[in-house]
Write a structure and sequence with these properties.
Elements lengths: L5 E4 L12 E4 L3 E5 L3 H22 L12 E5 L3 H8 L6 E6 L6 E4 L11 H18 L6 H12 L2 E2 L5 E3 L7 H6 L5 H5 L1 H7 L7 H14 L6 H10 L4 H9 L2 H11 L8 E3 L10 E4 L2 H15 L3 H17 L4 H13 L3 H14 L4 H15 L5 H18 L4 H12 L7 H13 L4 H13 L3 H12 L5 H14 L29
Helix pairs in contact: 1-3, 3-4, 4-8, 9-10, 12-13, 12-14, 13-14, 14-15, 14-16, 15-16, 16-17, 17-18, 18-19, 19-20, 20-21, 20-22, 21-22
């Protein structure tokens, strides 16, 4: 499994142990927690209200995801377990988020709903979902400061007992950063290359200053419409520093206004009463005994495991499957553990039994498809083998018409056989990327495909969100290299990707918090 993770800072979070696992489901979220049903329900309802509040404020509707493409949140029980899952027991990480087509997941220590002020871990979860929402509802790339400022703007939400939701409140969790950390000048916010070149310390006010600037431009009447105009110019290809100067005027004046803004006693925010919100309904079910017992192993698998870890995990999964041989959830989890361990035949057998018991178990089709694709590469008759390997994904498509994985594997069956993809397969992977805009590796593949097709302008558009990802690493650098090389490429002529040299690796001081 791909291990692109997003880290959250450590916060002391008292936990309680409960004997029953519950699953909350809504249109946009799935929450698993070993907690009281009422608390799990309330937690999921808060998330749905947050989603609805973002839709109201942005005036954007997100297409309802297929059930498997919702964000799944696992409350794992303690900070120690989170750090173990993350892979560094000494880290300050208290949770992380993994965006991927057909299975975006987040891991948090526990759920908390009873306090007046939100725990910082929940704030950062809201921050990450803001990114998820914004990229799902608006494909134009935002500069990094605006991306982070907007996420902080929404993550400072507050939930009232009467069902109201506040949006755009003061980001009090950034106050210490703004006042005591190294200040990031506006010219560095607007020019990310300049910021990276001059960044010398781990701790600075980047997130806090991004929030401050976004909040000021969003509410200051004298600058009404400037955020939209700035973003429009960036969409036209104007570099951020130039667009900022054209739209906002002298940067020194804007700096002064921000300093004055910090001194005001009250700031504007939105209070959205329940009548303005339309959150989807939440249903909570108690997991069956076998599936509940399997949850710790499921969480490890969903996080992503090495082969060594998988070999340890599969033995425990087999023992539980022996105890609960008729539990489809247990068998689907066993199929995943067997596939992760390289036991393709056993994965297929477990998946088949899970499907026989419960044909609605989508993960069983996914694991069977993965295993069959793995076997097809070494088959004598590869054409027949890949047709058979795609069958579970066809069945999955029958269950969830907008599941991105069948669309992706329709395309992959051509690529893995070294064949030219059909037009249907090409359009399928483009559709998959639209269904999962948060999956940057998928967009990277789509952009490269479009470049080879000679759709230069479209390829650059597809790659732009990858290139602008502040945490994209080498993939972001490669995407930018392709974009730059295609500036002189004629539209309509296939682009030779092999002529673009890989970018030189950059050594950077990591952020203390990456999102």
């Amino acid at each position: 499994m791909r291990k692109f993770v997003i880290a959250l800072l450590l916060l002391v979070w008292p936990t309680m142990a409960f004997a029953e696992w519950h699953k909350a489901e809504s249109d946009h979220f799935v929450v698993y927690a070993d907690d009281r049903a009422s608390d799990v329900q309330k937690f999921a309802e808060m998330l749905e209200k947050y989603h609805s509040a973002m839709e109201f404020v942005t005036r954007r509707k997100v297409e309802k995801p297929s059930p498997s493409n919702r964000v799944t949140i696992y409350a794992v029980g303690s900070e120690r377990k989170v750090k173990k899952l993350y892979g560094d027991k000494k880290s300050l990480v208290a949770g992380f988020y993994v965006p991927r087509a057909g299975g975006s997941v987040a891991f948090v220590p526990d759920i908390s709903t009873g306090r007046r002020s939100l725990d910082f871990t929940f704030i950062v979860l809201l921050h990450e979902y803001a990114h998820h929402f914004l990229i799902s509802s608006y494909r134009q790339t935002m500069p990094r400061w605006m991306n982070e400022g907007a996420a902080e703007f929404y993550a400072s939400a507050h939930f009232e007992k009467d069902g109201s939701v506040w949006v755009g409140r003061a980001a009090n969790h950034r106050a210490g950063e703004i006042f005591y950390s190294r200040e990031v000048p506006l010219e560095q916010l607007f020019d990310d290359e300049l910021y990276r070149a001059q960044k010398k310390y781990k701790h600075d006010s980047y997130y806090g200053r991004s929030w401050l600037l976004y909040h000021y431009l969003a509410f200051e009447k004298s600058r009404s419409g400037q955020l939209s105009e700035y973003l429009k110019r960036i969409g036209e290809g104007i570099p951020s520093p130039r667009a900022a100067l054209d739209v906002f005027g002298p940067i020194e004046q804007l700096e002064k206004e921000l300093e004055d803004y910090l001194k005001v006693k009250t700031i504007t925010s939105f209070k959205l009463p329940p009548r303005l919100l339309s959150p989807s309904a939440v249903t909570v079910t108690r997991l069956a005994e076998g599936e509940a017992a399997m949850m710790p192993l499921v969480i490890e698998s969903k996080r992503g495991v090495t082969r060594k870890e998988a070999l340890e995990l599969v033995n425990e999964a087999r023992q539980l499957a022996a105890q609960y041989p008729e539990d489809a959830g247990v068998l689907a989890a066993l199929a995943e553990a067997e596939f992760d361990s390289g036991n393709n035949d056993l994965a297929i057998a477990a998946a088949d039994k899970a499907i026989e018991i419960d044909p609605s178990r989508t993960n069983a089709y996914v694991q069977k498809g993965y295993a069959l694709f793995d076997l097809a590469a070494d088959a004598d008759d590869t054409a027949s083998a890949y047709r058979a390997a795609f069958k579970p994904f066809q069945d999955l498509n029958g269950l969830e018409n907008d599941h991105p994985l069948p669309l992706i594997y329709l395309y992959r069956q051509y690529i893995e056989q070294g064949k030219e993809p059909s037009d249907l397969a090409r359009r399928a992977i483009e559709r998959a990327a639209m269904l999962a805009p948060f999956d940057k590796s998928l967009w990277m593949n789509v952009g490269m495909m479009q470049a080879v097709e000679g759709k230069i302008e479209l390829a650059q558009w597809s790659l732009r969100s990858v290139a602008s990802d502040p945490h994209g690493g080498g993939m972001a650098d490669m995407a930018q290299a392709y974009i730059d090389a295609m500036n002189s490429a004629p539209e309509g002529e296939p682009f030779d990707l092999s002529k673009v040299p890989p970018p030189l690796p950059q050594i950077e001081i990591p952020d203390p918090e990456s999102d």
